[in-house]
Amino acid sequence: MKKIITLIITAASLLTLTSCGKDPVQPSEAAPAVTAAVADAAEVTDAALAPESESSESSQAVDLSAIPAWEGKWQADDTDEHFEIYDVTNDGFKMVFYHFEEGQIEEFNYVLEFDDPEKMTASEIGNDHSGWEYSFSFNGNSILVRSKHPDQTYNRVVE
Predict the structure, then answer these.
(1) Smallest Cα–Cα separation from 14: which of 33, 34, 39?
(2) Beta-carbon neighbour count of residue 7 at 10 Å?
(3) C-alpha–C-alpha distance, residues 36 and 64, integer Å
(4) 0.70 cut: is pTM over it?
(5) pLDDT tens digits for 102-156?
(6) What is the separation, in whole angstroms, between the first and last Cα of the chain?
Protein backbone atom coordinates (compact mmCIF):
# COMPACT_ATOMS: atom_id res chain seq x y z
CA MET A 1 0.00 0.00 0.00
CA LYS A 2 2.83 2.38 0.89
CA LYS A 3 4.54 1.63 -2.42
CA ILE A 4 1.39 2.50 -4.38
CA ILE A 5 0.99 5.77 -2.48
CA THR A 6 4.66 6.60 -3.05
CA LEU A 7 4.34 5.88 -6.79
CA ILE A 8 1.25 8.07 -7.11
CA ILE A 9 2.87 10.97 -5.25
CA THR A 10 6.08 10.58 -7.28
CA ALA A 11 4.12 10.57 -10.54
CA ALA A 12 2.22 13.69 -9.55
CA SER A 13 5.46 15.43 -8.54
CA LEU A 14 7.18 14.49 -11.81
CA LEU A 15 4.19 15.77 -13.78
CA THR A 16 4.41 19.07 -11.95
CA LEU A 17 8.20 19.39 -12.38
CA THR A 18 8.20 18.51 -16.08
CA SER A 19 5.60 21.13 -16.86
CA CYS A 20 7.62 23.95 -15.21
CA GLY A 21 9.13 26.43 -17.65
CA LYS A 22 7.01 25.28 -20.59
CA ASP A 23 3.84 26.62 -22.02
CA PRO A 24 0.83 25.82 -19.89
CA VAL A 25 -0.34 22.31 -20.50
CA GLN A 26 -4.01 21.81 -21.12
CA PRO A 27 -5.38 19.53 -18.44
CA SER A 28 -6.11 16.09 -19.71
CA GLU A 29 -8.76 13.76 -18.40
CA ALA A 30 -6.09 11.86 -16.43
CA ALA A 31 -4.93 14.93 -14.46
CA PRO A 32 -8.02 15.17 -12.23
CA ALA A 33 -7.78 11.46 -11.54
CA VAL A 34 -4.12 11.81 -10.49
CA THR A 35 -4.97 14.81 -8.29
CA ALA A 36 -7.84 12.90 -6.66
CA ALA A 37 -5.61 9.86 -6.18
CA VAL A 38 -2.93 12.01 -4.52
CA ALA A 39 -5.54 13.58 -2.20
CA ASP A 40 -6.93 10.14 -1.33
CA ALA A 41 -3.41 8.83 -0.72
CA ALA A 42 -2.69 11.72 1.64
CA GLU A 43 -5.86 10.95 3.61
CA VAL A 44 -4.99 7.26 3.78
CA THR A 45 -1.46 8.10 4.95
CA ASP A 46 -2.77 10.45 7.65
CA ALA A 47 -5.25 7.83 8.83
CA ALA A 48 -2.59 5.11 8.85
CA LEU A 49 -0.22 7.24 10.91
CA ALA A 50 -2.81 8.21 13.53
CA PRO A 51 -2.67 6.08 16.67
CA GLU A 52 -5.62 3.73 17.12
CA SER A 53 -6.24 4.81 20.70
CA GLU A 54 -6.93 8.39 19.60
CA SER A 55 -9.70 7.35 17.25
CA SER A 56 -11.36 5.04 19.77
CA GLU A 57 -11.10 7.59 22.59
CA SER A 58 -12.42 10.44 20.48
CA SER A 59 -15.44 8.35 19.51
CA GLN A 60 -16.27 7.92 23.21
CA ALA A 61 -15.97 11.68 23.87
CA VAL A 62 -14.65 11.13 27.39
CA ASP A 63 -14.64 14.18 29.65
CA LEU A 64 -11.73 13.22 31.89
CA SER A 65 -12.18 16.35 34.02
CA ALA A 66 -15.45 14.86 35.35
CA ILE A 67 -13.70 11.66 36.51
CA PRO A 68 -11.91 11.64 39.89
CA ALA A 69 -8.12 11.26 39.75
CA TRP A 70 -7.94 7.46 40.00
CA GLU A 71 -4.86 7.14 37.79
CA GLY A 72 -1.54 6.61 39.51
CA LYS A 73 0.34 4.38 41.93
CA TRP A 74 -1.13 3.33 45.28
CA GLN A 75 0.58 1.68 48.26
CA ALA A 76 -1.02 -0.29 51.14
CA ASP A 77 -0.80 1.19 54.64
CA ASP A 78 0.61 -1.86 56.38
CA THR A 79 1.79 -4.37 53.76
CA ASP A 80 3.90 -4.46 50.60
CA GLU A 81 0.78 -4.73 48.45
CA HIS A 82 0.39 -1.99 45.85
CA PHE A 83 -1.27 -1.28 42.52
CA GLU A 84 -1.13 1.05 39.55
CA ILE A 85 -4.27 2.36 37.85
CA TYR A 86 -4.04 3.39 34.19
CA ASP A 87 -6.19 3.82 31.08
CA VAL A 88 -9.03 5.59 32.92
CA THR A 89 -12.10 6.08 30.70
CA ASN A 90 -15.67 7.14 31.25
CA ASP A 91 -16.59 3.48 31.88
CA GLY A 92 -13.79 2.38 34.21
CA PHE A 93 -10.07 1.65 34.25
CA LYS A 94 -7.35 -0.98 34.04
CA MET A 95 -4.94 -1.81 36.78
CA VAL A 96 -1.96 -3.95 37.72
CA PHE A 97 -2.38 -5.21 41.27
CA TYR A 98 0.54 -6.64 43.27
CA HIS A 99 -1.02 -8.49 46.18
CA PHE A 100 -0.39 -11.50 48.37
CA GLU A 101 -1.48 -14.82 46.97
CA GLU A 102 -0.43 -17.99 48.80
CA GLY A 103 2.11 -16.13 50.94
CA GLN A 104 3.90 -14.14 48.24
CA ILE A 105 3.26 -10.99 46.23
CA GLU A 106 2.06 -11.76 42.72
CA GLU A 107 1.06 -9.55 39.78
CA PHE A 108 -2.56 -9.56 38.59
CA ASN A 109 -4.21 -7.50 35.84
CA TYR A 110 -7.80 -6.34 36.32
CA VAL A 111 -10.36 -4.32 34.40
CA LEU A 112 -12.80 -2.47 36.63
CA GLU A 113 -15.99 -0.59 35.84
CA PHE A 114 -17.51 2.35 37.66
CA ASP A 115 -20.48 1.42 39.82
CA ASP A 116 -21.95 4.90 40.29
CA PRO A 117 -22.49 8.00 38.12
CA GLU A 118 -20.05 10.03 40.25
CA LYS A 119 -17.32 7.44 39.46
CA MET A 120 -16.33 7.17 43.12
CA THR A 121 -16.60 3.35 43.31
CA ALA A 122 -15.50 0.65 40.90
CA SER A 123 -15.53 -3.12 40.85
CA GLU A 124 -14.48 -6.00 38.65
CA ILE A 125 -16.44 -6.50 35.44
CA GLY A 126 -18.77 -9.47 35.44
CA ASN A 127 -20.10 -11.57 38.28
CA ASP A 128 -18.27 -14.90 38.10
CA HIS A 129 -15.62 -14.31 40.76
CA SER A 130 -16.29 -17.31 43.03
CA GLY A 131 -18.83 -15.32 45.05
CA TRP A 132 -16.63 -12.28 45.70
CA GLU A 133 -14.99 -9.44 43.78
CA TYR A 134 -12.73 -6.48 44.36
CA SER A 135 -14.51 -3.21 45.06
CA PHE A 136 -12.60 0.09 45.13
CA SER A 137 -13.85 3.29 46.82
CA PHE A 138 -12.04 6.51 45.86
CA ASN A 139 -11.35 8.92 48.75
CA GLY A 140 -9.07 11.52 47.16
CA ASN A 141 -5.55 10.53 48.27
CA SER A 142 -6.58 7.05 49.38
CA ILE A 143 -8.59 4.14 48.04
CA LEU A 144 -10.42 1.62 50.22
CA VAL A 145 -10.28 -1.89 48.74
CA ARG A 146 -12.90 -4.43 49.75
CA SER A 147 -12.60 -8.12 48.88
CA LYS A 148 -12.76 -11.56 50.47
CA HIS A 149 -9.85 -10.34 52.62
CA PRO A 150 -10.19 -7.67 55.32
CA ASP A 151 -10.67 -4.14 53.93
CA GLN A 152 -7.38 -2.47 53.03
CA THR A 153 -6.55 1.23 52.56
CA TYR A 154 -4.07 2.24 49.84
CA ASN A 155 -2.50 5.71 49.71
CA ARG A 156 -1.45 7.63 46.61
CA VAL A 157 2.30 7.36 45.95
CA VAL A 158 3.76 10.82 45.36
CA GLU A 159 6.78 10.63 43.07
Answers:
(1) 34
(2) 12
(3) 39
(4) no
(5) 889 999 999 999 999 999 999 998 765 555 788 999 999 999 999 888 899 999 9
(6) 45
